[in-house]
TrEMBL record:
Its main location: membrane. One of its GO terms (cellular component) is plasma membrane. Belongs to the ABC transporter superfamily. It holds the Pfam family ABC_tran. It is found in: Cell membrane. This is ATP-binding cassette domain-containing protein. Keywords: ATP-binding, Cell membrane, Membrane, Nucleotide-binding, Transport. It is a peripheral membrane protein.
Length: 267
């Protein structure tokens, strides 16, 4: 276990807009350990996606440093795979081909076609989609599309899995099912995960730590809840667990009462 697998120090993000500069993130400091599951939660527009995009290397911070696995984050990399809310699959390719494309990009220089095919099948099996391998995105459900997105990300064997509200567009039952599946997959792969969510129950169920962000502009990390619930976690048993209920209340209290403005809390 490396103590600081991701190390974000004094990160700032200022966007240039038509109306002038917009200070989205201010003084964000966060370290993530290898194998940790972190969720980012906060009110709409506070900067969760902005922070995730910085870790993904899709945007560059205007200040501070961002380190992953001992190196400065200098752009997107297969070692930091992203799963978005709207699956972003290529519609003209089958599920298999969508995953294979990512596998090929990462491993084709060193591995045979047979090995690439095996990786693709293994990733599809991990999310329970072997039978749907030959279908195109318009022939499968929303939940299945998200599973292909997750398979595609996992197939790259990323050091970090970055997820931006991956289940946000799904109905409650499909969402619960995919959360359970994600718990199982992460337990099996030991992945480090940073996930954006709006859902307090999702955050408590999945996380080792819940990073709660203050409202913008100049949003920052308001507080962090360490979730000390044993794994594997069972959603039905947890619903009655006083510790679970306490964690849930802490997050709700932050979101609805403290509103996450450190300057106001200190006053
Ligand atoms: N490229 C950009 N240019 C200008 N402003 C931006 C840009 N991207 C994000 N912002 C602004 O930065 C703030 C944070 O946006 P972000 O999408 O990170 O919030 P969020 O917490 O992920 O929101 P939501 O929960 O609604 O998805 C918002 O005020 C948004 O308008």
């Amino acid at each position: 276990m490396s103590a600081k697998f991701i190390d974000i120090s004094k990160a700032e993000m200022v966007f240039n807009t038509k109306k002038g500069q917009f200070h989205a993130l201010a003084n964000v400091n966060l370290t993530v350990e290898q194998g940790e599951f972190i969720t980012l939660i906060g009110h709409s527009g506070c900067g969760k996606s902005t922070l995730l995009n910085l870790i993904a290397g899709l945007t560059t911070p205007t200040g501070g440093t961002m380190i992953c696995n001992g190196r400065e984050i200098a752009g997107p990399s297969p070692e930091r795979a992203v799963v978005f809310q709207n699956h972003s699959l290529l519609p003209w390719l089958t599920c298999y081909e969508n995953v294979y494309l990512a596998v090929e990009r990462v491993f084709s220089a060193k591995e045979s076609n047979k090995q690439l095919q095996e990786r693709t099948w293994a990733a599809l099996a991990l999310v329970g989609l072997t039978a749907a391998a030959g279908k195109r995105p318009n022939e499968i459900s929303g939940g299945m599309k998200q599973r292909v997105g997750i398979a595609r990300a996992l197939a790259m064997e990323p050091k970090v899995l970055l997820m931006d509200e991956p289940f946000g567009a799904l109905d409650a039952l499909t969402r619960a099912h995919l959360q359970d599946e994600l718990l199982r997959i992460v337990a099996a792969t030991g992945s480090t995960v940073v996930m954006v969510t709006h859902d307090v129950d999702e955050a408590v169920l999945l996380s080792d730590r819940i990073v709660m962000m203050s409202n913008g502009p100049a949003a920052t990390i308001g507080d962090i809840v360490q979730v000390r619930l044993a794994r594997p976690r069972d959603r039905l048993a947890l619903a009655q667990d006083p510790l679970y209920i306490d964690y849930r209340s802490s997050v709700l209290e932050f979101l609805y009462h403290r509103q996450g403005r450190p300057a106001q809390r200190a006053a």
